[in-house]
Amino acid sequence: MEHKSIGSTMHWGARLRFARRIASVKPLYLTIALIVIVGVAMTLGNDNFLSLYNLGTIVSFGAILLIAALGQMFPILIGGIDLSVGGTISLVSVMFTMLVPRIGYGAYPVCLVTGLVLGYINGLMLTRVKIPSFIATLGTGGIVTSLAYLLSPRPVSAAPSDYGYLDVVNGTVWGVNNVVILGFIVFALLFAFLRFTRTGRNIYFVGSNIKMAWMSGTHIVATRNVAFVVSGVCAALVGIVISCVRFGGDPVVGTSYVLNSVAAVVVGGTALTGGMGGVFNVLFGTLFLSMLDNGMNVIGVDQYFQQAIYGAMIIFGVAVTFDRSKTSVIK
């Protein structure tokens, strides 16, 4: 009887993984279609859109958003959300710029550990204090943003003598920008983590059906904590990259990444209800938003109207990917 129960659970898990892959195909194809449409429309609006220089700009700045969105994907896969990424990015950007003159390359691990701790605190707020992730991360995001202001109420610039420490991010390898290489490395690592580790598979399991995951022996608390830790580390990495690219930190630089990271995740086909999506969905969602953002600037769309377009993209992504079977009442 026990062997039959275990076999049934494993069979259910296999069917769940197959259904998840099939379900994620449709929104992914829609995103690819949107990329083509935007590419054609922006090219008609300005011939320079497809120039090598502009494509390089899209890829370079898209790599930064990709890292933030890949981190955001983890809380969303378990059915939560991380609204503190903007505050973490801002805090780390200021911290990194201020630490480099004092400890040099040591600023990199210190800032990454800061993101890890902040992510773990978010996880504890959800798993131990039992506060919904939306409220918990909204609160911690506000606290962290205040800390960034306390460190420096205005943008802080890196000294020219410290530029050498920033070449880890600003340099190139065989003509390829290190930011792009870094984005690829993060993408590959998180793909392998989700695909080949038990914790990665459990993240999908918990997001798909938390009760079934608990009944099958999955460590729910640890899995959810890991999801927020990954988000925190990725946000910290984005803060470091932005500081290097801009040669300075800013206590508000991460604000736009809250909306943009969520948009990149959901437009690519990762459902806000959890359990469906993945790194490739985020990759194409990020590419679409990067093309859209760059194209709107190239053809001269008003900056304030651009946020309305981003909001429309989030609505579209949720409409396509939202699993209504998991929610009997839409609130």
UniProtKB/TrEMBL annotation:
Topology class, membrane: Multi-pass membrane protein
GO MF annotation terms: transmembrane transporter activity
InterPro entries on file: ABC_transp_permease
TM segment ranges: 27-45, 51-70, 77-100, 106-126, 133-152, 172-196, 203-221, 227-245, 257-284, 304-322
Entry GO terms, CC: plasma membrane
Superkingdom field: Bacteria
Keyword terms, alphabetized: Cell membrane, Membrane, Transmembrane, Transmembrane helix
Subcellular localization: Cell membrane
Protein name: ABC transporter permease
Source organism: Pararobbsia silviterrae
